[in-house]
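Hi again,

Forgot to attach this to my earlier email, sorry! This is the prediction with calcium ion bound. I've pasted everything inline since the attachment limit keeps bouncing my files.
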Amino acid sequence: MIAAPLVALGLAGIAAAAPAASLCPDGVHSTVNPQCCFWANVRDRFINEIFLNVCMENVHSLVRIAFHDAIGFSLTSNKGGGADGSIIQFGETELAFHANEGIDFIVDFLQPFADTVGITYGDAIQFGAAVGLSLCPGAPRIPAFVGRPNATQAAPDKTVPEPDDPPTTIFARMQDAGFSPVDLVHLLASHSIADQAGVDPEPQVLGAPFDSTPFSFDSQVFLEVLLRGSMFPGSGPNPGEEQSPLSGEFRLLSDKVFARHNLTACAWQANALSQADMSSNFGTQFSKLSLLGHDKNSLLDCSELIGTPPPATAKQAFFPAGKTHADIEQGCATVAFPTTLSTQTGQPTMIPLVQVQDIAFGKK
Ligand code: CA
Ligand code: CA
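Structure tokens for the complex follow:
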């Protein structure tokens, strides 16, 4: 007599856990929350018209602008409205800041796209980044909230850390926005799919990536920044640049410092050694970043629209061809870098530039 109600409750629990999707008015998409129907179309347009269905330069660009816009925020003073699209809305002010060099290129296509589909700049940036990351092998699935109102003010200068800032300055700025030094290391997983613009102004290194796998959201950047540097790929040294270990690869001074700093080196090494933890840690911090300045409960949760990213291309980081454990500069003082990782076969090759994608939006 006691068992029957328990079974009934169990079945009810199962039914509640998997709500059914319903066909949207467009007759194409299906969503659980009917309010997300509009956003299903926005998602498709991002994938087809901005990203061209690949994790390449425009995904990199969305992740970059997502950070630069959101970090205009402070827990202690007025440094802007966070993830509010101010970097586009008040572009005349914010794009003139030194740290935002090269962001104008992203705004050139994202602003007309947002205006065309009819979404705020804050949503275009953060929803776009979540959609873009879903295309990257090894990336986490980022929850997608929408409904950010228009920005009401520009962020002031100096909210975005620069690669030649002292680590104490960068740590203080990030802490002021709610991120610890270790949280910052996790956010820097974004450099696994990133490349330089403006640190070295030479055109032949515009798009020089920070790791050897710029289309894969993997642990390589954490491993490769630990390798001993030996060359500058372009006109270096430039402010904010350090010697890189691989031909064609670009190293930011701040990345080198964090990989060896006592507050961050062990978290850095741990991310080099675990694809799953690295990806999950990034997801947690990036989700938080995307909501800075907003109450999550006042936004619409359309996370159901975000696809599961493809699995990581490699289960474990590897030494690029020609490199071994002997090339590691040990950063973490308490845990030695393991000797078990393998070296990629073949001869060392130059790492190619990340190319600009040919899309209709922003064409001049
Ligand atoms: Ca902002
Ligand atoms: Ca990578």
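The CA atoms of residues 165 and 254 lie 7 Å apart. The beta strands are 22-23, 30-31, 145-146, 241-242, 251-252, 300-301.

That should be everything now.

G.
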